[in-house]
Structures are given as structure tokens and as C-alpha cells.
Specification:
Elements lengths: L1 H14 L13 E3 L2 E4 L6 E5 L2 E9 L6 E10 L4 E10 L9 E5 L11 E5 L3 E5 L5 E4 L9 E4 L5 E4 L5 E4 L7 E3 L3 E3 L3 E5 L7 E9 L2 E6 L5 E7 L2 H4 L12 E5 L2 E5 L7 E5 L7 E5 L5 E7 L6 E7 L17 E3 L2 E3 L9 E3 L9 E3 L11 E7 L1 E3 L3 H4 L4 E2 H9 L6 E7 L2 E10 L5 E3 L5 E8 L5 H46 L10 H7 L14
Parallel strand pairs: 26-35
Antiparallel strand pairs: 1-11, 2-8, 3-4, 4-5, 5-6, 6-7, 8-9, 9-10, 11-12, 12-13, 14-23, 15-20, 16-17, 17-18, 18-19, 20-21, 21-22, 23-24, 24-25, 26-27, 28-29, 30-36, 31-35, 32-34, 33-34, 33-36
């Protein structure tokens, strides 16, 4: 048993780089005033298999190597950088790509030689290489003594008494880290993609009656909610902001608390962290939990939980605009009116669909509604729908509003006549769910018809018909001529085969023999 334990210990040594490199750095604090230029010659460059960052602060964690740093993170493929907080491996033999958990200027990247200044009056000021102002923490109420990146990944401006003046966790972007709290009314907003860190249309926020996920359209459309107990729901009748509400990311759970609650409510449970965990709201609307994987010397980040617990078809953009999701497969709307929609890319159905003919408000009289049965929308129809109405009124409401792109009608169970109506100015993904309670009506542009166009169409039909008949008659005539020639040839063959018949000569043979019918070949033969 002792031998086996020794082998396991040796294997662990092989996985972890315990031969600590003397180039390891630990520089988590800087005093004001200070200035940093986004240049490898001025900062500590760190390369991670094609990705790199120029770090200005680093809080070393010697226990497992995963450390928080602040610096200029490179955005491939262009010469763009964002001032960010990221998780890195401090052991240079095992560099992993940095995991960005916060950024100051994700909607406006800077270039090489941009500068970050730390002053006692304005705190942090970020300027691009042309001197233009990009981002700052100005408006502070106390003098800044310095800056610190903490063990929890929080970037803090502190005063001479070491009290916090400003901190990054109060201004989250798309992530939460362990120990972080999200207060009522504050958002986390997803990046546009894994390579484009600009803010996208998905955001998560805490309102007075629970946690909500929204698609930031006009108006915002809800796709997820976790409401609190009836104790709060009875007190709060609308979606106001309650500053006493908060959720906290702890090791193994996320809990919700409020002044109106007698106890904290656990809303998500997951496995405890191996080292550092973080939660990211991603560009597809999923809220995913990531942990660093040490198993079998893997040394990589892995997704360990998809926290919202929705099916793929419940997400607003799973099949793009106008797409219909059914068992994870995406299709475009079809109906008896014709094919008004086509996939954006035939090889990638999840991108969505586009209208073959664009809808124009100048031709409202020719708007039609394409009926889709057993189709649901990701939005909770009870929150933004009309009052109880009938299906025809719902359809007319959409046809009468040029901004309406689709109408959804959901009947009350047991009552097929009345229900809820939702009109949509923007159409995202639908979900197929055959239960007979919901229908969608998508507005399409019908082609206008006029008397002149009808005449042209009739003339074209008559001309085509006449041409086809003429072609058939020509074929029949050619067939008859060929048939007659073949019959004559067969008669000639029979005549030549009769015994005692005189020799037959062709016209050319006779003309040659008579020298063009001048010479007489003979006379007589009959008396």
C-alpha cells in the first residue's frame, strides 16, 4: 500500500511543475501616481499559445498556480487590447490561455502604446495611443492612495487608510467569481462572441421578485426567471428594483437574500471548486460554471454546469431569427401560403432564416399572416401580452401595426376561443411543442396583383399553349413524312425482286449514257 501511495505521489509531481521558475512574479499593488504603457517593453508580457497579455498587476497564488492579473489583453486577429482582469497560470511551463473575467473597455478596444494612468484625483484613466479618452473612474469622493488586485480577483482603488474607494466587482461585465455578490438592479451582460468581447443582447439582472434573464430587444423580452417565494410575490406586484436583494456566489452554490426574506434561498447548487471557479453569461444566453481541471494532468478549463436548466429550444437565438427549434433541429417556417422564408446558410440551419420578400409599410394592404400551429415563443406570454382576447382580434392587432412582425396566441387550457395575445416587433427563435394551445402568425409580404399584370399573365399562358401545340404538330408531320418514305422504299424493293422484270436505271445513269439526253441509245422493241 505504501508503494502504491509513493507511485501516486510521483505521478502528482509529474503533473505539477514544482520546480518553481525563478522568473515568477508577484506585484499586486501600485501606489499613486503611476502610469503604464501597453507595450511589451514597459509591462510583463505573457504568451499563452498564440494569445498574450501585457500585465501591470499580478496576485500570485503559490498553492495551485492559478492567479489573478490585471493588464492589457490582446484581442486577435487585429491590433486591439482591452484593459481587463484575467485568470492565468503562474507557472510558465504550463501557461494556459487567460480567462477574462472583467473588462473596462470591451466596447472600445485600444491599440498598442495606449496608456493607463493612476492619479489621486481621478483614479484610473485609460487613453488610446492617440490620446483620446476611452474609460476612467473619475468622480471619486476621496483621494486615491493606490491600486490592488486581490486574491478574489477584485481590482480595488484604496485611500490612505486602506479603505475601498472603487472596486471592479461593483461593475461586473459578463462574469461572477467566487465570493462575488450581485446586487439588485445590477446587470451582467454577455459578450458578443468568444473573440468579440463587446456587449451583446443577453443580460441577467436581479429584480424585486427574483432573478431574470432578458434578451435586450425593444422592449426587452424575458427568457428566464427564478422568482422568490409567495411571501415576496404578494408584496411586490411589479418588476421594480430592490437594492436589498442580492445573490452571492459561494463555493458550491448561489444564494439569494433580501430584507423581505427571513432566510437565504439557494437557487443553484453545483460541485465544490477544485481551485478557482467562475460563472459566465455567454453569447448564446447560457449561464455556465467553469472550473480548472487537474484530473489526469489535463490542465484545462472545463464547463461543469449549465445553471439555468433550460432546454436548448428554450433559448431565444438557438435557431436565429424566424427559426423553429424542434428536438434541437432548426427549420424555417412554411405554410399553405408558400415558401416565404429561406435559411441564411443551408449548411448552418442554426443561423436562422430570412424573408424572401421584405415587409414594407408602403404596401400594408398586401400583408399576410403565415399560420404556424403548436408553436411557442421563448418569452413568457403572460408578462407582456394583451388582456384576454380572441384569436381574430390578436391577428388584426398585428396586421394593423406595421411594426408588428408576428403575433402569438395562446389559449387558456379548456377554452379554445379566448386566451393571451403577444405581438412581436422583433422575431427570434420559435419552439415546436404540439399540444394544441399555441399558434404563431408571422407577417409576410404578399405580391400585389393588378388587371394589367393579369392580362400579361393570360397572354403568356396562351402564347405558351399555342407554341406547345405548334411543336407537337411539327413532330407529327415529320413522323408522317418519314413513315411514307419508308413505305415507298419497301415497295421499290419488292418490285426489283420479281423475276423477268427489266433492268431499272437511275436518272443519273440515264443522263450519263445519253450524254445529257442528246444521243439515242436505240429504237424499236415493239412493232
Amino acid at each position: 500500500m505504501a508503494f502504491i501511495s509513493s507511485l501516486a505521489f510521483v505521478a502528482l509531481l509529474l503533473c505539477f511543475p514544482f520546480s518553481v521558475n525563478p522568473q515568477l512574479y508577484n506585484y499586486p499593488i501600485a501606489s499613486a501616481p503611476a502610469s503604464w504603457k501597453n507595450s511589451p517593453s514597459d509591462l510583463q508580457p505573457m504568451v499563452f499559445y498564440g494569445e498574450y497579455a501585457n500585465s501591470l498587476l499580478l496576485r500570485l497564488n503559490v498553492s495551485h498556480g492559478l492567479s489573478f492579473a490585471t493588464g492589457f489583453y490582446y484581442l486577435p486577429p487585429g491590433n486591439s487590447f482591452i484593459l481587463s482582469i484575467y485568470i492565468i497560470s503562474a507557472f510558465d511551463e504550463y501557461y494556459i490561455p487567460p480567462q477574462v473575467i472583467w473588462s473596462a473597455n470591451r466596447d472600445r478596444p485600444v491599440r498598442e502604446n495606449a496608456t493607463l494612468q493612476l492619479t489621486s484625483t481621478d483614479g484610473l484613466t485609460l487613453r488610446d495611443n492617440d490620446g483620446s479618452l476611452v474609460w476612467s473612474t473619475s468622480g471619486l469622493n476621496r483621494s486615491v492612495a493606490g491600486i490592488n488586485i486581490t486574491e478574489a480577483g477584485n481590482l480595488v482603488l484604496f485611500d490612505i487608510n486602506n479603505s475601498t474607494i472603487w472596486q471592479s466587482i461593483d461593475h461586473p461585465t459578463d462574469c461572477l467569481v467566487m465570493g462575488q455578490t450581485l446586487e439588485g438592479g445590477i446587470r451582467i451582460s454577455a459578450n458578443s462572441s468568444s473573440t468579440n468581447l463587446a456587449e451583446s443582447q443577453f443580460y441577467l439582472t436581479l429584480l424585486a421578485d427574483g432573478l431574470y434573464g432578458f434578451l435586450n430587444s425593444n422592449p426587452p423580452q424575458e427568457y428566464y426567471y427564478y422568482r422568490t417565494t409567495n411571501e415576496i410575490s404578494n408584496v411586490i406586484s411589479n418588476r421594480t428594483v430592490d437594492k436589498s436583494m442580492s445573490i452571492k456566489f459561494s463555493n458550491g452554490s448561489i444564494t439569494m437574500s433580501s430584507a423581505l426574506l427571513t432566510y437565504d434561498i439557494p437557487i443553484f447548487h453545483f460541485s465544490s471548486a477544485n481551485s478557482i471557479q467562475y460563472i459566465r453569461l455567454e453569447s448564446d444566453g447560457h449561464l455556465r460554471l467553469y472550473d480548472y481541471d487537474y484530473d489526469y494532468c489535463a490542465f484545462q478549463w472545463k464547463m461543469v454546469a449549465d445553471l439555468l436548466n433550460l432546454s436548448n429550444c428554450d433559448y431565444p437565438t438557438v435557431c436565429g431569427h424566424y427559426g423553429i427549434c424542434s428536438n434541437g433541429q432548426c427549420t424555417c417556417p412554411t405554410g399553405t401560403l408558400g415558401n416565404y422564408f429561406k435559411p441564411v446558410d443551408n449548411r448552418r440551419a442554426e443561423i436562422g432564416c430570412y424573408a424572401v420578400t421584405n415587409i414594407t409599410c408602403q404596401d400594408e394592404n398586401h400583408h399576410l399572416l403565415l399560420n404556424l400551429t403548436d408553436v411557442y415563443y421563448f418569452n413568457n406570454i403572460n408578462n407582456v401580452a394583451f388582456n384576454a382576447t380572441d384569436e381574430e382580434t390578436c391577428k388584426k392587432a398585428c396586421l394593423g401595426d406595421c411594426k408588428c412582425k408576428a403575433a402569438l396566441f395562446q389559449t387558456t387550457k379548456g377554452n379554445s376561443k379566448y386566451g393571451k395575445c403577444l405581438t412581436l416587433p422583433d422575431v427570434f427563435s420559435f419552439k415546436n411543442q404540439p399540444d394544441g394551445y399555441s399558434s404563431a402568425y408571422i407577417k409576410v409580404q404578399g405580391a400585389p396583383s393588378s388587371p394589367s399584370s393579369s392580362k400579361v399573365g393570360l397572354g403568356a399562358i396562351l402564347g405558351s399553349t399555342f407554341g406547345a401545340l405548334l411543336f407537337m404538330l411539327t413532330l407529327i408531320s415529320i413522323y408522317i413524312v418519314c413513315l411514307r418514305r419508308r413505305e415507298e422504299a419497301e415497295d421499290d424493293d419488292i418490285f426489283e425482286q420479281l423475276p423477268g422484270m427489266p433492268t431499272r436505271f437511275t436518272f443519273e445513269e440515264l443522263r450519263a449514257a445519253t450524254e445529257n439526253f442528246v444521243k439515242i441509245l436505240g429504237k424499236g422493241g415493239f412493232v
